[in-house]
Amino acid sequence: MYFPYVRGRQYELLALRELVANNLLSKNIVPIVEPVKLSPTLVNMMAEFIKANHPISIIRNPSVGTFLSDYQKVKQDSKEATYRDKFEEQYKDSNIIKSIIIQNGCHELLNYWGEYDIVKKQDMLVVATNRDWLWLYEKYFESEYPKFALIPDESVFRRKIRRSKVLLDDKFKKQERNADYQDVTDEFFSDDHIYYIEDGFVGFSDYSIIGDEYSDSGFAPYAVAIHIVYFADDKSLRVKHFVSDSNEDIANPALKFYQAVEKLTKWYRNEKPNIEMTFGLKTFLNHYDNQTYPGLGTVKKLSLMHHLELMSKYLNEE
Predict the structure, then answer these.
(1) Which residues contact 208 (CB under 8 A, 6 or more apart)?
(2) pLDDT per residue over 50-75, tens digit each?
(3) How far apart are CA 110 and CA 87, in angstroms?
(4) Which helix (H) or strand (E) holds 150?
(5) In degrees rounded to 5, what are phi and psi of residue 143?
(6) What is the pLDDT of residue 180?
(7) What is the per-residue pLDDT across 100-133, written as a single tens digit (0 to 9) for each?
(8) What is the separation, in whole angstroms, between the first and last Cα of the chain?
(9) Taking the model in full, what pTM does it have?
């Protein structure tokens, strides 16, 4: 099983919502969302997964963003209160996997869930990536184990967490600037989907083409980069980077996008790589043919959609 980990920005939530609404997401894929704020986009995405009867993991104690403070500061009879109430109701649904990061303060939530029998241990997904908090995992899950436990590929975690392990690794080699991808236009991405069972895991997880690094501050980039994952001949995954050329300033992002998507289109149509058509890829090609600019958030959304649909096709054939 594949557990793509996203941080719950708007374009990530929209990507998941569109995939599940259009039946493009395999049942072998369980997205993990670490919400960064309480928003209508979040609750609408959750509603779509519930409607499709498709499981999704929602982390209840995110380590980044403003979700927790948004949740706690909601005023009654406000529109935010409506989002909070919808979130609370949807979180009870069986398609929502109750999930938690093993970190400072999480024992309060675990104890609350256990004391009031809100969430059974065997139904939880836990993210255990901090060595300093492994003692809490061992204490709380001493006799009953979570449904899934995401861990890094390190010996101390493999020794202490022996059941229902999901391999979590950041596969995307993020560059400091988008223009820097011009120096490495094609590189290895992952082969965890080939070896995870052999290595003793029940699933694998990564941060797709976004990476683990999180920032809540936006800025206008000098360069536009499109990241497209594809299968090599040995079934490993590689990622191709298509970067704009006019990168001296932040002017004319539409031109920058067209330069990048032109390179993507020529690569796909002329070199004919080992890649199945996906909704995301098709939309990129349509933007090139029609000379339309969807906005930078949509560029990231389409790249993410392409990756997850590509993995859906692969896992459905396994």
Answers:
(1) 4, 5, 6, 172, 304, 307, 308
(2) 999 999 999 999 999 998 888 888 87
(3) 19
(4) strand 148-151
(5) -120, -25
(6) 95
(7) 999 998 988 988 888 878 899 999 999 999 999 9
(8) 11
(9) 0.95
